[in-house]
UniProtKB/TrEMBL annotation, chains A, B, C, D:
Keyword Amino-acid biosynthesis attributed: yes
Organism of this sequence: Suilimivivens aceti
Family: Belongs to the chorismate synthase family.
PANTHER family per the UniProt record, alphabetical: CHORISMATE SYNTHASE (PTHR21085:SF0)
Keywords attached to this entry: Amino-acid biosynthesis, Aromatic amino acid biosynthesis, FAD, Flavoprotein, FMN, Lyase, NADP
Subunit and partners: Homotetramer.
UniProt lineage: Bacteria, Bacillati, Bacillota, Clostridia, Lachnospirales
Gene this protein is translated from: aroC
Cofactor (UniProt): FMNH2
Annotated protein name in UniProt: Chorismate synthase
Length: 366, 366, 366, 366
C-alpha cells in the first residue's frame, strides 16, 4: 500500500525505519525561489530531538539533515527536495526480545498481520522516529507560510492530569520548558508528575494545541477535502494520537446553538467574529479567524512494568520492556503537530489559487 | 478545487446543491458481480430522511434514488455506478434574506470569500442534503463489507446533556427511537430536552458512535494513510462535526500507560486483547478487535432566535432565521457516520490485497 | 478499478454505458464565475453527433445535455458540475448475438476476462458513446482556455490513404465537410474512399491533428507529468487510438540533431523558435510555440463481413455484425481529441500557478 | 507542481539533478516478502551506464545504488524502499556557458520560463540522468512481474535510417551489441552510421521496442486508465520521446478493418488471436497476447556544431556545445523503456485484484 505520501500540490513522501540506514523525505511541489538551507530545517528538527531533558529518552540522536536535491545556489528550484537524516544511534541489541513478542499498545502484531513479518528493531517503520521526516518537510512549509503572513504556534496543553492555565499563558515558556508548556507553573507540576510516572515505571499521555494566525477566509474545500477534515487526517496520522478537536471541539456537542454560534460583525471593512468557538473553520472553509486544533495523545505504550502478552507463535507470555523510551511523547510531538498543520494549510492555500476564473485570467493575461 | 472525491480504489465523487436539480454520486471502482438494486440504496437513504419525527424538519424530501449506470441485469459491472436523487421539495422563497446576510455558524461567508458568490438557496453545496449522496454510496460499501463478514452499527451516543447508559443498551431501539439511541430511557429524556430546545427556538448537539465488527487484523497503512487517520478525515468531512475520537479517545490522554495498554493473549489459535482502549487500531493498522469511533456534532446553527451578524456589503445587522430546520442533526447523521466509516474501511481492505508478494503470486499464478 | 477520472485540479469523472439510462460526467474543480449554459456544451456535443452525414451511423442520438449542479444564475459556483446525457436511441435488439460472441477488434473478451461478465448492449462502457461525456467536460475547459487566450483547432489529417495537403489548407472546411478535413479536395477523395469501404462492408482508419495556440512557455512538469506525457495519456485513452505523436513525432527518430533542433531567436522582447519540430514542448514543458499532436485511429472494428471468432463458451464460430456503425470514427473523434487536449492543458495551466514562491506571496499578500 | 510520482498502488517518486549530490527514488507500495538486494538493482542500472562503448559518452558514472530503507534481512517489508545513487562524476565546469545561453532542443528556456531560474549544471533535473532513478525502481517491478510469470524484452528497433530485420532477429545480441539491437548485421550498419554522425559533430535518433509476455487477459481499465493510455504516459515521460505506438500503431490508421482486426480462436481451452495487430490491448484492457509498444526518440539535441540561439537576456547569439554527450540516446534508453513499461504493468496488475466481488470475498473469507 502506497500510503507514505501527504498533500496534493505540496506533496511529501517519507521513508525510513528507526534502525535502518536513514530516514528521509521528498518534498515535491515546493515553489521555486524560496531561500532554503539545511539550517532552516535543522532548527525544526532540533525541537523534536531526544536526549535534551530528563523527561526524554537518553538516546543521542543527532538528526543531522542533509539536502540532496532541489536547492541550487541557496534557493529552491521547484524540483523535488530530497532530505536525508542518517540514523547514527542504533543499539539494535536492545530489541532482541520484541522480535518475537508483541508489545502491548504497539503496532508489532498489526505489522506482522499485514506484512507477514516486520523490521522489529526499535519499532521499525512504526517508530516515532518517522516523524523526523515530517518535521523536515514541515519546516519548509512553515517558512513558505511565514512569507505569506501565516504563522503557527503549537504547545503542550496538558500532560496527564496537569493542564495549562490561560491566566499563566506565557509563549516564551514553550521553548524554554522541558514540557513545551506555555505556563511555567504547570510545567513544574507536569514535570513532577512525570518524575513520579518514571519512578513507577509508567508513562503519561497529554494534549497538544496548535493555533494558526493569518489564514485568510476562503481556504479549504466544501465537501471531502474540508480544511478541518484534512487537518484531522494530518494530525491523526501522528502515532499515538487518539482524538482530534477543532475549535471548541467536544465541548460543542453539549452546547445549544445559541451558545455555540459565533456572531459576525463588520470592523473597519473586515468581517470578524465576536467569538471563535468554531476554531476558524465553517463548512470546511477558513473564516479568517485563528485556526485552533488539539491532538490527544495516549500514554507511551513502552512502560517498564511486566505486561501480559503473546509471542508470534501464539504463546502467552510476560514482557518487560527495556531500552530508552520517553515517559511521554507530547513535548517532542509539539513540533510534529505544528508541522502537519503547516503542511495541510499550505497545500490548501495552494489549491485555493484556482478557485475563481478571474484568478486564472489575471494570472495568464496580465 | 477538486475536493469532491473520497477513496482511492473504491472512489466516490458527489455533486449537487440543496435546491438544484439533483444530488448524486459516482461510485468508481465498485467490484463487479455485486447484486444491487435501487431498493438496497433506498433503505439507507430512508434512514436519513427528514420529516419522519417531530424532532426533524417538516420538509418532505422523498429522496428517491435512481441508478443511471454500472448495473446490468441486477449486478454491478465494475464500471462507474452513477446515482441521482432529484430534488423535489424546494421552497426557495424561504431563503431570500440569506442571499445577502451571513448566517452565524454557517459557511455562507466562507463560500463567498472563496468563490466570490454562492448558490445561497438552502445552503447550496454546504447543505447537509449533500450527505444523501454519501449515504447512497455508503449503502453499496456496506453491502460489500457485509459479504466480507464486516458489519457496522452506528447510533446516537448523546444529545445535549443526555447520554445513553451501557446498562440500558438495546440495539433494537436504534431504528425505533426518533433519536436513534440504543437506550429507550435516554431517548425519552433526550426527546424532552429537544422539545424544550425547540420551544426556546434553540438547537442541540450530540455524539454519534460507530462500532465495526469483523475487520481482520492488518487493515490500514503505517504512516499517513493510517486507518484511524482516514477515518478521521472521513468523519470530520461531515458538516457540523467538530471532534473525532478513536477507541477511548480523549480519555487516553489523561491515563497512564499501564492503564491504557491492551494486553494481548492467545485464544484458540487467535490473538486477542483483554481490553480495547485502542478502539481496534494500533499504529494505524487494525488489530482484529472492534473498531470504535465517535463523532462530536455541534448544535444546528440554524436557530430561530435573533442573532447579530453582517451582510455581504459589510453592514452590521440582525438575522432571524426562518424555514424548516432540525433542532439537532445527530439522529439523521447516524447513517452518514456509518456510511463514511464503511467507505473508509472498504477502501482500506481493497488496498490491503496487495500488501504481500505472495498475495500477488497466488492471485496470478493459481 | 477506479479509472474513470482524469485531471488533478480540473478533474472529470465520467459514467455511463451505450444503452444504459444515461451518460454523464462530473467536472470537479471548475473555477467559479464562468458564464455557462447548456448551449455552451451542446455546441460541442453536436460536433460529435452521429446521423449527420452519409458516412456516419444512421442512429439518431440526440445527445441533449442537462446540467444538474454547479451552475447558479448562469455562472459556475466552484462546486461540482454534473452533466447528464440521457440515452434515447437504444435498439438493444441489434446486439443479441454479441452477448455470447466476441467481436474481433472489440473489448468484449477483455471485459469478460476482467469483470466476469459485461453489459454487452452496444459495447456498454467500451462504446465510443462514452466520449460524449468527455466532450461535455471539454467544452467547459475550452471555454476557460479561451478566456485565457488559449485556442484549439483539431481536424482530420488523413482517412485511409487520403491525406490533407498543406497547400489546400482551409480552416473553414473543418466544420463544413463530412470528414472534418480542412481541405475540400481531400475531403472529396476521402469520401469516395469511404463510400467504397462501405460498399465492401469494410471500414477505415485515419489521423486527427490538434493545434493549440496561445499556451505560454512554462506549462507542464519536468518528469512524469510532462505536458506531452499527459497529452499522450489523454489522447491514447480515446478508444481506437493506437499511436500518438508530438510535433514531428515519428519523423524525428530518423533525423539528425542538426535537422531536428529548433533554433531560438529573440524577437521584440520575446523568445521564439525558427522552426517547430518539437511541437511546442521541450523537456515536458511548453516553449511558447504552437502545441501540435496527432492521434492515429485504427479502422472501426465493426465491419459487416463474416469474421472468425469464438463464443464465451470457447466455441469457434463465425460472426457477421449487424447494426449501425460508422465506417470511420475519425470525423466524430476530432472534437474528442480537441476536448482531451483542452482538459490536459487547462489542468497543467492550473497546476502551474504555484510553480514559484512569488506567485503565492503576490496572491496572498496583495 | 508535484509531478515527480508515477503509479497508484506501486508508486515511485524520484528526485535529483544531474550534478547535485545524488539521484534517487522512493518506491512506495512494494509488496512485502520480495527478496531484494542492491545487486538486483545494480544489474539494471549497469544496462544504462554510460562510458561502456565508443558510441557512448566517455563520462565515468559509476551509478552505485544504495538501499536506505524498506528492506530487512534481505526481504522487502512493505514499507517505502528509498534508493540513492550518489553523483560522483561532476565536471560542472563544462557547463558554464549554458547558464546564460539556451541550448536548442533542450528544456533550458522552458525551465527558466516556469521556475524563474534553474540548476543549469548538466541539464539539472531535465538531464537524462534522472532516468537512473526510474531504472532502480523498474528493477524491482521487473523482479515482481517475473515472479508472476510476466517478462519484458526491450531492444533498439532502429537508429537513424538503420532498422533491424525480422530475419536476423537474435535476442542474445541485445546485451552484446553496443546499439542493443537484436540483429548483429544491423548493429554493424548502425554503428557505422553513428561513427559518421560523430565525425560530423551531429547526432541521431531511433526507436525502442518493448515486448511483454505473460500478461493475462483483463489487465487495465476501460476509460482513462486504459493500459495503453498509462503506457503512453509512462513512455512519453522519458525525455526525447516524441511518439508512442501500441501494436501496429501508426500502420493501423491506413488499413481497412478487415485487415486490422485480429480474429479470435479457441485453442485447448484458451482464447487466442490469429494475429496481434492490436499489440495485446483492446479497449484499454490486455487480451492475453504479447503487449508490444514502440517509443520514438529524437536525436540527441547536444551537437557540437555551431547553433543559433538566444541568451536569457534575449540577445541573439551562437552556441557551440562542448562536453560529453552520447551521439544517440537510444541504446541507453532501452532499459528505461523496459522499466517504465514494467512499472505500468505491475501497477495495473495490482489494481486489477479488486475488479470482482468474488476476489474480495475469497481473499477475506477463506
Amino acid at each position: 500500500m502506497a500510503g507514505s505520501s501527504f498533500g496534493t500540490l505540496f506533496k511529501i513522501t517519507t521513508f525510513g525505519e528507526s534502525h535502518g540506514k536513514a530516514l528521509g523525505v521528498i518534498v515535491d511541489g515546493c515553489p521555486a525561489g524560496l531561500s532554503l538551507s539545511e539550517h532552516d530545517i535543522q532548527v525544526f528538527l532540533d525541537r523534536r530531538k531526544p536526549g535534551q531533558t530528563k523527561i526524554s529518552t537518553p538516546r543521542k540522536e543527532n538528526d543531522q539533515v542533509e539536502i540532496l536535491s532541489g536547492v541550487f545556489e541557496g534557493k529552491t528550484t521547484g524540483t523535488p527536495i530530497a532530505m536525508m537524516i542518517p540514523n547514527t544511534s542504533q543499539r539494535s541489541s536492545d530489541y532482541g526480545e520484541i522480535a518475537v513478542t508483541y508489545r502491548p499498545g504497539h503496532a508489532d502484531f498489526c505489522f506482522d498481520s499485514k506484512f507477514g513479518f516486520r523490521d522489529y528493531r526499535g519499532g521499525g517503520r512504526s517508530s516515532a522516529r518517522e516523524t523526523a521526516a515530517r518535521v523536515a518537510a514541515g519546516a519548509i512549509a512553515s517558512k513558505i507560510l511565514s512569507s505569506m503572513g501565516i504563522h503557527l504556534t503549537a504547545y503542550t496543553k496538558s500532560i496527564g492530569p496537569v493542564s495549562i492555565s490561560d491566566d499563566h499563558f506565557d509563549p516564551s515558556a514553550i521553548s524554554e520548558t522541558s514540557t513545551c508548556m506555555p505556563d511555567r507553573e504547570a510545567d513544574a507540576r507536569a514535570s513532577a508528575f512525570l518524575a513520579q510516572c518514571m519512578k513507577e515505571h509508567d508513562s503519561a499521555g497529554g494534549v497538544v494545541e496548535c493555533v494558526v494566525s493569518g489564514v485568510p477566509a476562503g481556504i479549504g474545500d466544501p465537501v471531502f477535502e474540508k480544511l478541518d477534515a484534512m487537518l484531522s487526517m494530518a494530525v491523526m496520522s501522528i502515532g499515538a494520537v487518539k482524538a482530534v478537536e477543532i475549535g471548541d471541539g467536544i465541548a460543542a456537542a453539549s452546547r445549544k446553538g445559541s451558545e455555540n454560534n459565533d456572531a459576525f460583525y463588520a470592523d473597519h471593512g473586515q468581517i470578524k467574529k465576536k467569538t471563535n468557538h468554531a476554531g476558524g473553520i465553517l463548512g470546511g472553509i477558513s473564516d479568517g479567524s485563528e485556526i485552533i486544533l488539539r491532538a490527544h495523545f495516549k500514554p507511551t505504550p513502552s512502560i517498564f512494568q511486566k505486561q501480559h502478552t503473546v509471542t508470534n507463535t501464539l504463546e502467552n507470555t510476560e514482557l518487560e520492556i527495556r531500552g530508552r523510551h520517553d515517559p511521554v511523547v507530547v513535548p517532542r510531538a509539539v513540533v510534529v503537530v505544528e508541522c502537519m498543520t503547516a503542511l495541510t494549510i499550505l497545500d490548501a492555500c495552494m489549491k485555493n489559487m484556482t478557485a475563481r476564473l478571474d484568478y486564472l485570467v489575471d494570472f495568464y493575461q496580465s
